[in-house]
Amino acid sequence: MSARRIVIIFLTTIVLGALTFLMTRAGMLPPRLDHVIYAVLTVVAGVYLIRSIANTLRRAFQPVVGGQAVGASLLVQVVGYTVIAILVMSLVGIPPEAALAGGTVTGLVLGFGAQATIANILAGLIILASRPFKIGDRIAILSASIPFQIAFLPPYKFFSRDYYLPAYTGVVKEMGLMYTIMVTDDGLTIRYPNSLIIAGSAVANYSESYERTKKIRYEFPLELEPSKVLAVLSEKLRDIGVNVTEPVIEEQGDKNSYIVSVLATSEKPSDWPQVKTAILEKFIATHRELTAKT
Hints:
Number of strands: 9
Oligomer: single chain
């Protein structure tokens, strides 16, 4: 619907409403006919207004959420038509209390029946408008409402001073009105309800704050002499072609191992998988070499 047509419809509605008011004051209209005219004008103008808002909303969000934008458009129309129905009932002589009661009952039925759906859609609109993350960002979602299996962490985490985030980390694949879809680092696809993200979660966006320096750790058994591990590993890391610090013994992993770590620097986020792979290869080569000599 064009903007010009909308303006013409609303101007016509205002003019007809004003003429009805003047003719009613002059006694030119039969009793109650003015209420019927007002009700018809309310329906015509209201329907066009609601359709215009719904279509604008659908066009605005369809490039982002695809076909799910139709759901938001439908929600706007349902709410808008309900309001129009209450106004029309009041204009044609139904007592306001009865009209409001009917609207209240309808609202309660719709509210309780579609509470989760409406909450997700509203939360989805907030996420799409505020943009805390976007498709392709690597994020971590921390929430007490989302079960996180701490037992799946490496054993040394239970003996480590190094913090861990009880969160699911991955890349945002899709942002919809109902769900945000993320692919975790393990390749698992998870659909998060948008209301859960807005109301009960903290989101860490790693794509917005790129860490140039990261710690890489490796667990060595106590049977290997720590001084020999550091010496051999340091020698192997010299020709790696990556900016990396000297290895240090960080802490004891458990009663049978200790943790050796280095700090590596990468200028580009896309280089991190190759950097980490190259360093871990040196860790593993050191481990195998010294194990073979014992």
